[in-house]
Design goal:
The structure holds two protein chains of two kinds. By secondary structure, chain A is of the alpha+beta class. Chain A has helices at 20-26, 76-92, 107-114, 150-157, 225-231, and strands at 3-7, 10-14, 50-53, 56-59, 70-72, 131-132, 138-141, 164-167, 174-177, 204-206. In chain A, strands 2-1-5-3-4 form a five-stranded mixed sheet, covered by helices on one side. In chain A, strands 6-7-10 form a three-stranded antiparallel sheet, with no helix packed on it. In chain A, strands 8-9 form a two-stranded antiparallel sheet. Classes of the chains: A alpha+beta, B alpha+beta. Chains A and B meet through loops of A and helix 2 of B. The complex binds iron/sulfur cluster and FE2/S2 (inorganic) cluster.
């Protein structure tokens, strides 16, 4: 007999060892997420995937699926909380969609649209963050980093390198490059690395490719992130 | 000339009148007049009170962002900034204008014609036609596009549709009506589909016909109000614009030409990459806007006008037949001499709308816009200069980048800046001739705004707010006390207040 749990009243099968996120994705149920990626060890940091499991808030990307769980996902209250979280992500960095080259292909922006976020709500922090353009092919614009650690994980788990890390805590948390100079040009990163293509926002970019995809042909121009997320084989959809 | 009105000697003892902000122009400007006891104007200045510091904002960004970033300079002619920046970054990837793929060149031109058409149509029909059709001192309530629509429904509707058509051209080429993408370093990111081309073709003949009608209308308005229209706020000046190498009117790419007030050619076919050998900018303490001038003539005499009047005046011909016929009549009006009338800006502007419509039609029939090579690339360079004829005049973008592709230096000369000296001179002239010695009333003050508006200044990149801009006039006596206040609310209502 298949084991099942329910999400918003819908019976969903799962296998032992799966997280709620994995079970949901397999059953074509979208749970908003940013730091989750099916190919990498879950990190559970962005909290966008928060669901209620038997009345308790849990991160779907890390919480193991279990027989008989009653999961609430797509409810007004939960989506309101997710919207607030997204707004916080926006004000904490410098995310100026209109001129950003990732616009239309950005998961942060797409999630904001999905959650019907119409303004920032919170005052902008305008943090002072630098840009690292030292690498000939790859650029980091720290203004747009949301500390999802996908680049950290991709570099370690797939590229077999250790280019990135997070440093500092709380509001001082930031992404660093693991080299004595701290500069990307001194790292082992090459443009073909998975880590160079995994960023859900416009923080890590391949140089000189901005705006080459016309408006109308970008990932989220005609599709909501919930569809893209479930129809893309990888369930993640950068390049 | 009225230079003596730039700075009054006894400014502290004079009565101060402030027009703040100047309405129906783009952005935020303010005029101050200083009057003596007899209401004689002693000083008149147009100040720019908003400063965006865009040049510094751009520094530190990667160069490929520029065409999109700089669009934010202006809500009305973003495409001009987009294209000027694109031309500059073409050079950063080693592509000179002659090496740009033919399709990319034509698509950019199409985009630009759409922009000039929509900006000119907006300016003429929405912002200026109320003054021109009802008179400069007409009742304030009449001076809006709404009143134009009521009294001259055909003209109003044609204006709205001409503008809309220009916006549709922009949308088809760049993906959005404003702030699209489109031009990228070395080319453009998409061609037109057949469906998009056919959609635009549907209405183009109508647009040409309406543009032709608009030229007839403005010519009639101009010529039935002589000599007033020739003289109002008029000044003899130098003119600068790009032209094609054969002297034809050119909006997208050409060499710099300058003629003096007598019509002598001072510069011709100058490579715009050398612009800073010919043009310098002066800073004055009372305004954020700089004053560019021609080095060879010096600060005093080297100022010049740009924009439609300059372009139509100094080109040898226009390469589309209907606009050329209109230009010939325009020049006949001045017996072939240069037309110095400031209000003739409107006439020239509408000739350009006609030229844009004809050019759009020509390009829509050109198969190159449907595909072919769109982007190319050469050797990396560290400096790029892009110059274009924006709706309001010659627009210069100049960038330097480092080895990491980051912008280290930016210099922009926006069109309105080049007209700064002329606008101030026109304000002083109107202040002296029409206002001096009279009791100040709102319609009289509108004369000043009419003079400024003829230049279609884009005073900043502030968002556009037709008819919504609150206007405040303050009369301050010689002791500095507020004696009267005239307020225009954003509803358009007037309120008189006494100090
Ligand atoms: S750079 Fe991108 S992938 Fe890396 S932590 Fe920041 S947001 Fe995540
Ligand atoms: S997706 Fe689960 S915490 Fe980020």
């Amino acid at each position: 007999m298949n084991k099942t749990l329910s999400i918003d009243g819908q019976e969903i099968p799962f296998e032992d060892g799966q997280t709620i996120m994995q079970a949901a994705t397999a059953a074509k149920v979208y749970i908003p997420h940013l730091c989750h990626h099916p190919e990498f060890t879950p990190h559970g940091s962005c909290k966008l995937c928060t669901v209620k499991v038997n009345g308790r808030n849990c991160s779907a990307c890390t919480f193991p699926a279990a027989e008989g769980q009653e999961v609430l996902n797509n409810t007004t209250d939960i989506n309101e909380d997710r919207k607030k979280i997204t707004q916080m992500l926006f004000v904490e960095g410098n995310h100026f969609c209109p001129s950003c080259e990732k616009t239309g292909n950005c998961q942060l922006q797409a999630v904001a649209y999905h959650l019907n976020m119409l303004d920032n709500h919170f005052p902008l922090f305008y943090p002072q963050r630098a840009m690292d353009a030292s690498h000939p092919e790859v650029l980091i614009d720290h203004n747009r980093c949301i500390f999802c650690t996908l680049c950290v994980r991709a570099s370690q788990e797939q590229d077999g390198k250790n280019v990135f890390a997070l440093s500092g805590r709380g509001i001082n948390k930031h992404l660093i490059v693991n080299t004595p100079s701290g500069k990307l040009k001194d790292s082992a990163l090459v443009a073909d690395d998975r880590a160079a293509h995994i960023c859900p926002t416009g923080a890590i970019l391949i140089k000189r490719t901005g705006y080459t995809i016309p408006i109308g042909q970008r990932i989220y121009d005609h599709h909501d992130i919930s569809d893209v997320s479930l129809t893309t084989a990888e369930a993640q959809h950068d390049h | 000339m009225y230079e003596h009105l730039e700075t009054a000697e006894n400014a502290a003892q004079l009565k101060r009148v402030v027009i703040d902000p100047v309405s129906r122009v783009e952005g935020h400007g303010k005029v101050t007049l200083l009057l003596d006891e007899n209401n004689k104007v002693q000083q008149a200045r147009l100040h720019i009170v908003e400063f965006r510091g865009f040049e510094r904002f751009i520094q530190g960004r990667p160069y490929w962002e520029l065409p999109v970033l700089v669009q934010r300079l202006c809500g009305i002619c973003p495409v001009s900034h987009h294209l000027a920046a694109a031309k500059a970054i073409d050079q950063l990837v080693g592509v000179d204008p002659e090496n740009l793929p033919v399709s990319a060149d034509k698509l950019r031109r199409l985009l630009h014609f759409g922009q000039v058409m929509q900006s000119h149509a907006l300016h003429f029909f929405h912002l200026s036609s109320p003054d021109l059709l009802f008179g400069f001192e007409s009742e304030q309530s009449k001076r809006s596009i709404i009143a134009v629509l009521a009294a001259f429904p055909d003209i109003g509707v044609q204006g709205v549709k001409l503008r809309k058509y220009g916006q549709e051209v922009i949308r088809m080429v760049s993906g959005k009506r404003i702030h699209g993408s489109g031009a990228i370093a070395g080319g453009i990111n998409k061609a037109l589909t057949r469906a998009e081309r056919d959609y635009l073709l549907q209405d183009i003949e109508q647009m040409i016909a309406w543009a032709q009608g608009a030229v007839v209308l403005i010519q009639k308005v101009h010529c039935s109000n002589l000599p007033y229209y020739d003289e109002f706020a008029g000044l003899r000046s130098n003119y600068l614009s790009l032209t094609k190498s054969n002297g034809a009117l050119e909006l997208y790419h050409g060499g710099i030409r300058v003629k003096n007030a007598e019509g002598d050619t001072l510069l011709d076919n100058i490579d715009y990459c050398q612009y800073n050998q010919y043009i310098h900018e002066e800073v004055r303490s009372w305004t954020y806007m700089k004053f560019p001038y021609l080095l060879s003539l010096g600060k005093e005499n080297g100022w010049y006008r740009v924009g439609p009047l300059a372009r139509v005046n100094i080109c040898d011909y226009i390469d589309t037949p209907l606009a050329e016929a209109a230009r010939v009549e325009f020049k006949a009006h001045s017996q072939e001499a240069l037309v110095h009338s400031t209000l003739a800006f409107h006439w020239a502007r509408l000739i350009e709308v006609l030229h844009c419509a004809e050019s759009i039609e020509r390009l829509l029939h050109d198969p190159a816009i449907l595909g072919g090579e769109l982007v190319t690339k050469g050797e990396k360079r560290y400096e790029g200069i892009g110059v274009i004829e924006a709706p309001r005049g010659t627009l210069f973008h100049h960038y330097q980048v480092d080895e990491n592709d980051i912008v280290t230096k930016a210099n922009l000369i926006v069109s309105t800046t080049s007209n700064n000296m002329a606008m101030n001179e026109s304000v002083r002239q109107v202040a002296a001739e029409y206002l001096s010695g009279q009791e100040l009333t709102e319609p009289l003050l509108n004369n000043i705004e009419v003079a400024i508006r003829a230049y279609d200044p884009c005073l900043s990149c502030a968002t556009h707010a037709v008819g919504k801009m609150p206007l405040q006039l303050e009369l301050v006596n010689a002791q500095g006390d507020l004696v009267a206040k005239l307020l225009k609310h954003d509803t358009g209502e007037f309120e008189h207040a006494h100090g």
